[in-house]
Amino acid sequence: MTKRLLTTFAIVLFAAVTASQALVVSVEPVEIFNAPELSAMGAGIQSVLASRVAGPGVEVVTGAEAGSSVDWKLMTTITLLGGVYSIDGSLIHVAGTKAGERTYETVSDKDKLMDGLTKVAQRLKNHLASSAPASAMPQSMTAAPVIAAKVESAPIQPNLPANVTGGLTGNYTLLGTFKGEPRSLDVMDTNGDGADDLIMLVEEELLIYTTRGGSLAELARYPLDLPSRPLYASAGDIDGDGNAEVFISWSRNHIVYTKAYRLGANTLTPASEEAKAFVRLVKHPAQGFKLVGLPSKGGPEVFKKQLYSYSLAGNEIKEGDKIVTKGNQMPVNVSWITANGSGRVDTLMIDEFDHVRIYGPDNSKLYETEEVVMGGRSFFEGEMRNQQTLLEGDRYEVNSPASEINGLLVIHDNQEGFQLTRNMGSYDNGVLRAYSWDGLAMRPVWMSPTFQGFFAATAPAKSQKGLYALLVKSEGFLNKEYKASILLFDL
C-alpha cells in the first residue's frame, strides 16, 4: 500500500513539474477569407489545431485563458482563391527572443481540410519541439488541449474590423469614366483648393482631373512632345516649393529614359535633361518623397539588376546610392511598410519574378514570399503594335503595382486579366488585395469585389481616408477602344 501511494505521488509530482516547464501556446481564432461556407466552422477548426499541437511539454490555451504566461502564439488563416483553400499557419514568439515559423498547405476541396490542418499543425509542433528545452519535452506524458468555453471565429473577409484591415471596406464610389488608356495615377492638390487632384498619363498627354464635389472634372491637359509614346508618370512636390514635379518615362531602342517636368498654375515645363533610367517618386512614411529607379543600359537586358536612389539636382536626374536587394532577381518595385504596432519602417521589394522581400532598417532580410503578387504587372511597351503584322514592340517589365496605405500593402491582383492581355488583347477579372505585415509574415486582410476590367494603378487619397483605383476595360482586338473608370474605396 505504501509503495502504491509513493508511486502515485511520484507520478503526480512528475506531472506537476512537467506542467511548470511546459511551453504555453495560445491558439488564436482562425481567420477565414473569401470562404463563407467555413465561417461557422472557426471554433471547430481552432479546436482541431489545438488538439494537433498539444503534446508532451506543450500546453494549449485559447481566448480568455491566454494570460501573461503565454510563450507562443499560433495564428492561422484559411483563404479560398481560385477554388483552392490555402491554410497558412504561423508561430510567433511572444518575447521575440526566438525565431518564429511559418508554413502553409493547399487543398483542392473542403473535404481535405482536415488533412491540410494536420500537416500544418505537425510542422509547427516540430518547430516547438526544436526550440523547447529538453526538460520541457518528456517522452511519456501527454497533455490534453485546453479550449475556452466560448470561442468565436474571426469575421470573414471583407467585413474584418477596421483595426485589422486598415479601414478598407468593400464599399466604393464610381467618380467618373472617360475614354483612353491611362498608364499611371498619382494624387495631390495641384491648385491649393483642398481637393484631391488625379494626375494621369493617358495616351500621349498628361491629364489632371479634380475630385472636388465628389465627381471627376478635367482641370488641365498637357500634350507631351517625346520621341516615343510616354509610358509612366509619377508626381509629387519633391523640393517643397508648393509645385509638383512630374517624372515621365518612355522607351526607345531598348533604352528607357526619364525626364522631369515642373507643374505650374497652367503650365508644364521641362525641369531636367533626360536620364537613361526608369525613375519614379515613392513616398516614405517618415521621410516624404524619394526618387528610386533602375538604370537602363540598353541591349537585351534593358536594365541593370540593381535599384538605386536618385535626386533632382539642377537640371539633372542624378544616380545615387544602391538600395539593398540581396537577391538574384532584378527588383522592380520598392515600398516602405511598418510592422503592426511598431514605429519601425521596413523596406519592401518586389522583383521581376513576383517575389516579395522585406528588409529591416539594418538591411537584414526579415521575410520572403512568392504568394502575394499574382499578376497584373505594369509594362513598358516600345513602338506601337503594328496593326498589320500584329508584331509587338519592345516590352519591358519595370513595376509591380503596389500602394502602401495605413500600414497595408495593396496589390493589383489581375492574374487572369494579365494573362488574357498578353495573349489575346482583352482585359477581365480585376481585383485588389491588401496585406498586413506583422514582423513575421504578410497576411491577407482585405479583398475588393471582382471587376470586369484591369486595375492599372492605385493611389491613396491625400488624407489617407480613401484609396483611388484606376480600372481599364478594352473592346476589340486589332483596333482596341479603351474606357477608364476611377473608383474610390472607402476607409
Describe the structure.
This protein has 5 helices and 32 strands. It has 2 domains: 109 residues, TolB, N-terminal domain (Rossmann fold), CATH 3.40.50.10070; 320 residues, 6 Propeller (Neuraminidase), CATH 2.120.10. The strands form 8 sheets. Strands 1, 2, 3, 4, 5 and 6 form a 6-stranded mixed beta sheet that branches. The chain has a 4-stranded antiparallel beta sheet with strand order 7-32-31-30, with no helix packed on it. Helix content is 13%, strand content 43%. The chain has 491 residues and is mainly beta.
Essential attributes:
mainly beta, Rossmann fold, six-stranded mixed β-sheet, four-stranded antiparallel β-sheet, elongated
CATH topology of the largest domain: Neuraminidase
CATH class category name of the largest domain: Mainly Beta
H/I helix tally: 5
How many angstroms separate the termini? 71 Å
Q: How many domains, as an integer? A: 2
Provide the residue-averaged pLDDT. 76
DSSP E strands, number = 32
Helix content: 10-25%
Largest sheet: 6 strands, mixed
CATH architecture label name of the largest domain: 6 Propeller
Q: Choose one word for the global shape.
A: elongated
Uncertain spans: 1-20, 134-168, 381-395, 416-427
Structural class label: mainly beta
User: What is the alpha-carbon Rg in Å?
Assistant: 26 Å
Q: What portion of the residues fall into strands of 2 or more residues?
A: 35-45%
Question: What would a concise description of this structure say?
Answer:
With 491 residues, the protein is mainly β. It folds into two domains: 109 residues, Rossmann fold (3-Layer(aba) Sandwich), CATH 3.40.50; 320 residues, Neuraminidase (6 Propeller).
